[in-house]
Amino acid sequence: MAGEDAxxxxxxxxxxxxxxxxxEGEPGKEMYVIQSGKVNITxxxxxxxxxxxxxxxxxxxxxxxILNNKPRSAGAVVAEDAKLLVIDPKTFEAMIRGxxxxxxxxxxxxxxxxxxxxxxxxNLLLRDPSSRVVHYLWQAxxxxxxxxxxxxxxxxxxxxLHGRMGVxxxxxxxxxxxxxxxxxxxxxxxxVLVPDTGKMQKYLEFLEMKERFGD
Length: 215
Ligand code: CMP
What we know:
By secondary structure, this protein is of the alpha+beta class. The protein has helices at residues 2-11, 64-68, 89-98, 100-124, 129-144, 161-164, 169-181, 197-213; strands at residues 12-15, 20-22, 31-45, 48-55, 60-61, 75-87, 146-148, 151-155, 186-188, 191-194. It folds into two domains: 2-123, Jelly Rolls, CATH 2.60.120.10; 127-213, Winged helix-like DNA-binding domain superfamily/Winged helix DNA-binding domain (Arc Repressor Mutant, subunit A), CATH 1.10.10. Strands 1, 2, 3, 4, 5 and 6 form a six-stranded antiparallel β-sheet that branches. It has a four-stranded antiparallel β-sheet with strand order 7-8-10-9, with helices on one face. A hairpin with a 2-residue loop joins strand 9 (186-188) and strand 10 (191-194). Adenosine-3',5'-cyclic-monophosphate (CMP) binds next to strand 4, helix 2 and helix 4.
């Protein structure tokens, strides 16, 4: 797109996988818009780095410390080679003040992010890894699942899930395999298919009972 090229000429920078864009606690000097590639938003708890979110093309980050003048709430690391617009605070503020459309999009995105953070808190309150994985997929199917003749399709990369729910990659794999074996989900190239979200909710209740009372 010509507009995107012009923006890239002015604000664009290219980054390699593994580049640290900023660390949690640093002062914020700019915000970023992703044109291509992926960026992990990370938080370190007791020396363990956890991934809060993996952001892709069209998404932005680093705006919070620019808006509230507080240190970076999380770190940002390039997960896949990326082209980013790097925008200084003055330009960012001028963009928001000068364009209601941008301001509305920003508010919508921040609301989505808050809702996702609330879902994540709910998820982390579940104790066992299987419940966390099934709960995440169930919520994603109900809230964001794409309607198909076979059920709700959740576009998800299962390799990106473990960091955000505090379980290991192996635990995600085991939970997914068990749930697929019980025919609650089906694995498809685009992600995960949920034929019946009501049945999945019952399965989740069953897992929670099992956790509380044993087999
Ligand atoms: P800032 O605090 O400047 O630096 C870290 C950035 O990570 C923050 O702005 C947000 O843009 C982004 N961020 C923080 N928490 C989350 C989250 N839970 N999900 C997605 N992005 C986040």
